[in-house]
Amino acid sequence: MYFKKLELFGFKSFAEKTALHFEPGITAVVGPNGCGKSNVFDSIRWVLGEQSVKSLRGSKMEDVIFNGTENIPALGYAEVSLTFANENKALPIDYDEVTVTRRLFRSGESEYLINKTQVRLKDILELFMGTGIGAESYSLIEQGKIDLILSSRPEDRRLVFDEAAGISKYKSQKRETTRKLEDTEQNLLRINDIILEVKRQINSLERQAAKARRYKEVFERLKSLETQVSALALKQYQEKQDELNQQLSRSIGLESQTAQGIEQLCNEESAQKDELRQLEEKVSSVRAKIAELENTISYDSQQLGFNHERVEEAKKRILAIDEQRKAL
Ligand code: ATP
What we know:
Distance between the termini: 220 Å
Strand content: 5-15%
Low-confidence stretches: none
Shape: rod-shaped
Helix content: 55-70%
Bound molecules: adenosine-5'-triphosphate
Number of helices: 5
């Protein structure tokens, strides 16, 4: 496995698209001070996933994007692609040629690609882990790095040997697995808590379900009783209605009879009134006659009184005559 090609666009001093082709064996980059040799080295670290801005000799990640010169305007993004010859499958991917690409926009958005397929940074790091090529690996030795390795603590030096021995990948996987295991244990604890809570809820729900069943039974019983009561009441109402209907028809018959009686009485009243009127007429005529007779009687009485006196006088003369005759 070896680098085949490095393509840069907008990375640090490489404003124009630049491609560097490498052959198997040693490649030396030479040039005057400040021409960009270290930038080539930085671009390789960067495309392999370097996250340390300090290692890239900047103050912020945006510093890797070409920031313009007097004649050339600044660019909006930086892109670096590094192509590996992978015929021996040193990289665990089923391609003879592998190209990794990193893109960074001024907005802060970044993209990683393996053979033009978008991937995560993690995928890039895993691809190179244990190969000695990663951004942090011993393959990339910048100025002063040898001194740093020699003077560093044994634990830090151990990292270099782990990577060289190819076990850093497994250590990383172990760290990842341990982290996942811890996460899983935490999840298990949470699940146990949830199970306890759910059990409590189940007990409460079972009580509620029992109450609901009891309520349903009582409700069904109540419904049945209410239906029976309603049926009974309905029967009673129907009987009452029949009775009232009979009473009504009797009353209607009675009313009709009464109306006939009233009519008859009215007729009789009217006849009696006629009769009364006739009687009153007769009474008044009789009264008139009585008055007339009384007048007549009064006159006759006067006449009679006069006659009575004459009669009495005659009787007295008769008696006198009789006494005279008797005396004779
Ligand atoms: P030396 O031999 O002294 O180490 P060098 O060849 O390694 O130098 P670099 O350090 O690679 O040079 O390049 C430095 C140059 O890159 C400087 O001219 C600097 O202005 C330019 N440079 C760095 N970052 C950017 C950027 N974001 N935009 C434009 N130019 C940049």
